[in-house]
Amino acid sequence: MQTLSIEQETNPWEAQAARFDFAAKKLNLDQGIWKVLRYPSREIIVHIPVTMDDGSIEVFTGYRVQHSIARGPAKGGIRYSPDVSLDEVRALASWMTWKCAVVNIPFGGAKGGVICNPKKMSQGELERVTRRYTAELIEFIGPEKDVPAPDMNTNEQTMAWIMDTYSMHMRQTVTSVVTGKPVNIGGSRGRTEATGRGVSVVCDEALKHLGIAVDGCRVIIQGFGNVGSNSAKLLQRKGYTIIGIAEWDGGLYNAKGIDIPALIEHRKNAGTINGFREAEAIDSAELLTRECEILIPAATENVITSRNADKIRCRILCEGANGPTTTVADEILGDKRVFIIPDILANAGGVTTSYFEWVQDRMGYFWTEAEVNQRLDSIMSESFRDVIAYAENHRVNNRIAAYMLAIDRVAYTTKQRGIYA
Ligand code: NAD
User: Fold this and answer.
1) What domain range includes position 114?
2) 111 is annotated as an active-site residue
3) What does the pLDDT look like over 361-382, one tens digit per residue?
C-alpha cells in the first residue's frame, strides 16, 4: 500500500496521472506518445474583471484546460466553485479525453472553471462573469475547436449566455459552440437526464454481469443534483429500491425505499432534502457506509478515501461523479472485491448526449427524445461490455481497463496523425 498524506491522496491531478501511468505501462505504450498524452496540450488562465451589483469591481480567476484534440474538438464542462484549482481542472480535462474515447465519440478533452461562489452571486453577476469569461476565451473555443458544457453550479442558462456571447462576436448565431443549452435554442432533448440515464444503463449491465436481480437491489446515492436526482428517478422507475440519499447538509434513509419524485418536489419547495417526512434523517458520512447493492457517489471528488473505504459495504460502486474514489481507496475496495464502474464509463452519458446535441446543431435537424435515448442506451451498454472485455482479457480491474481502452484509442490517432514539427 502506498503511503500518501491526505493532501497527496486527494490531489485529482496526481490521481489521474497515477492511473494513466499504470495503464500506459500495462499497454506498453511508446515512451514518446506517453509524454504527449500525460500532459494537457494547452492551459489558459484568465483574470475576469466584473462590475458587481453594488458598483464595486471584482476580479475572478478562470481556467480552461485543453488536454487533447487528437480525436476531435476538445470537449468538457465549466464549473463555478470557490474550490476550483488548476490541478483539478487539469485532471478533469484529462478525464474528458479518456471518457470520450471510452464511449468512442469524436472529441478530445477539456475542462473549465471559475473561482467564485455562485451561491453568493446574483443572476446579473453570474451573467457578467460568464460573458466576460467567454470573451476572454473567444479565440480558443468554437464548434471545431473546443465545445464547453455545464458542470457543477453551471446550467443551461449559463450555456445560453456563452452561446449568445460567442455568437455576438462571430456576428451570427452559432449554436454548436456549447452543449447543454435549452432545447428551444439548439439543446438536445434528453440532455438534462442523460448522465443519470447512462448511470442507470451501466447499473443494469452490471447487475446482468454479476447475476443480481433488480428486484430487491438497494441503492444509496450521494448528491441529489443533476446526476444524483436523475439517476435516482430513473433507477426507481426500473424497479431499484433507493434506500438512501446523502447531501452536504444531511442524509435520508428508508429501508423500504424513498419516493424520489416526492423528494424532488420537496427539495424544490424547501431548498434542501432535509425535513422530508417519509424517511429518517441520517448523517451523510454514515449513510455511505450502510449496506447496499449499489453505491453511487454523484456529488464531487475524493469522497471515498483511505479514511472510509474499509467501511464501504456495497457490491457495486457506480461513479456518477468525476474522481470520487482515490487511488488508495481503489486498492482497499479491490481487496473487498467491490465491483467498480469507473467514472470515465459510468458518467459518460452526459457527454454522449452532448455529442448528439453538437451533431443535431450542425445538421439543423433535431431528433425525438426516444431517438436520443435509444442511441444513448446502446452506446452505454456497448461501452460497458468493451470495458469488461478489456478487463477480462488483460486481467486488470475495470478502472484500469477503461483507461487502457481509452489510452489505446487516443494513442492510435495520435500516432496516425504524427507529430507536427
Ligand atoms: P450539481 O451541482 O447539479 O449537483 C451536485 C449535488 O451534490 C448538489 O446537490 C450538492 O449539494 C451535492 N453535494 C456537493 N457536495 C456534497 C457532499 N460533500 N456530500 C453530499 N452532497 C454534496 O452537479 P452535477 O452536474 O450533478 O455533478 C455531480 C458530479 O457529476 C460532478 O462530479 C460532475 O463533474 C459529475 N458529472 C456531471 C455530469 C452532468 O451531466 N451534469 C456529467 C458527468 C459527470
Assistant:
1) 46-184
2) yes
3) 999 999 999 999 999 999 999 9
